[in-house]
């Protein structure tokens, strides 16, 4: 319930515009958000990316945004991603860009989305950069998979995220392994009906392991994207993770100790970095999935 409330708050335009207009509150909440985001500008993202690479991490960079309904805004978002790829290339950050298709057109038109994705993949390819497509609510899964499959046929530098909590993911994954793109396995961040998805449970963890196993056995490029320590330990017990096609990936600011361990053990440890003006939504997602973070956020805002 707390999670649902926080997600509703995140989507409330009223609260968002109040926050943006409040000269006192805005910097305080931004301060709290900086535990999870690099900052508001592309430069913030690039600066932290360079620092993390210097420390031995791989990185993914996302310009935050989702569910954009205007064609003009989707075009602008695509342009921002192009610029990001350009600047990453110029700085020799030949790593990963991550995005939600609903940020670049999915709610407007699937053809526009496909064209935008291909444009990004083309630019990224010239810098040896991977474009990872995120997975969104189950109502969008078919469209996201269709667009991904069309794009990856031409651009093997495009990858896809799969949510272990969706029942359909077993079948989807089976099919996705026929394509060359990297597969990122996540538990799933969205509230879904119980006939569609498995809630957080041992059953979900077993499903996560099963999917990882499937990809590992096929030697397919894989990102194990979780902060679940016991899951990572179980995967480590069964498989050697120090392989070039396998990586452990975590969100910036969440369990940095665990990601450092992965790095120190010789695994590819990828840190998922975000930037952008829409950090408020991203912050609410991180609070919603782990309400204990509310305490941290308040401490960041008002001091211990
Ligand atoms: P789980 O939620 O069970 O948490 C396990 C443990 O991790 C917790 O006990 C806690 O210790 C720690 N933890 C988890 N979340 C935390 C938080 N916010 N703050 C502090 N500690 C926390 N989802 C999606 O639906 N589509 C997508 O495309 C992506 N993409 C994506 C990329 C990457 C790189 C990551 C790491 C995650 C995603 N996600 C995602 C989010 C994912 O689905 C999931 O919601 C979060 O990773 C949290 O789930 P865990 O696997 O960490 O397990």
UniProtKB/TrEMBL annotation:
Pathway: Amino-acid degradation; L-proline degradation into L-glutamate; L-glutamate from L-proline: step 1/2. The keyword Nucleus does not apply. Transmembrane segments: none annotated. GO terms for molecular function: nucleotide binding; proline dehydrogenase activity. InterPro entries: FAD-linked_oxidoreductase-like, PRODH_bac_arc, Proline_DH_dom, Proline_oxidase. One of its GO terms (biological process) is L-proline catabolic process to L-glutamate. Keywords: FAD, Flavoprotein, Nucleotide-binding, Oxidoreductase, Proline metabolism. This is proline dehydrogenase. It comes from Aneurinibacillus migulanus (Bacillus migulanus). The lineage of its organism: Bacteria, Bacillati, Bacillota, Bacilli, Bacillales.
């Amino acid at each position: 319930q707390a999670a649902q409330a926080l997600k509703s708050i995140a989507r409330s335009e009223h609260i968002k515009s109040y926050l943006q207009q409040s000269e006192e509150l805005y910097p305080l909440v931004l301060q709290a958000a900086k535990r999870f985001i690099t900052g508001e500008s592309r430069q913030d993202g690039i600066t932290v990316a360079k620092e993390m690479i210097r420390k031995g991490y791989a990185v993914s960079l996302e310009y935050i945004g989702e569910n954009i309904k205007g064609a003009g805004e989707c075009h602008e978002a695509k342009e921002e991603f192009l610029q990001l790829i350009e600047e990453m290339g110029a700085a020799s950050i030949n790593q990963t860009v991550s995005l939600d298709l609903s940020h670049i057109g999915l709610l407007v038109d699937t053809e526009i989305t496909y064209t935008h994705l291909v444009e990004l993949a083309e630019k990224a390819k010239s810098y040896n950069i991977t474009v990872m497509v995120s997975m969104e609510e189950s109502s969008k899964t078919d469209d996201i998979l269709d667009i991904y499959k069309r794009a990856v046929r031409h651009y093997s530098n495009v990858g896809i995220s799969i949510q272990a909590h969706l029942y359909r993911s077993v079948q989807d994954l089976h099919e996705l392994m026929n394509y060359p793109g990297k597969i990122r396995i996540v538990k799933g961040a969205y509230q879904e009906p119980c006939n569609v998805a498995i809630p957080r449970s041992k059953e979900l963890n077993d499903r996560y392991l099963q999917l990882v196993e499937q990809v590992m056995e096929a030697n397919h490029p894989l990102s194990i994207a979780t902060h679940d320590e016991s899951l990572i330990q179980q995967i480590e017990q069964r498989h050697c993770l120090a392989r070039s096609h396998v990586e452990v990936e975590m969100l910036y600011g969440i369990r940095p100790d665990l990601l450092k361990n992965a790095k120190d053990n010789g695994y590819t440890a990828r840190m998922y970095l975000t930037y952008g003006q829409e950090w408020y939504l991203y912050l609410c997602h991180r609070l919603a999935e782990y309400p204990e973070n509310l305490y941290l956020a308040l401490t960041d805002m008002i001091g211990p």
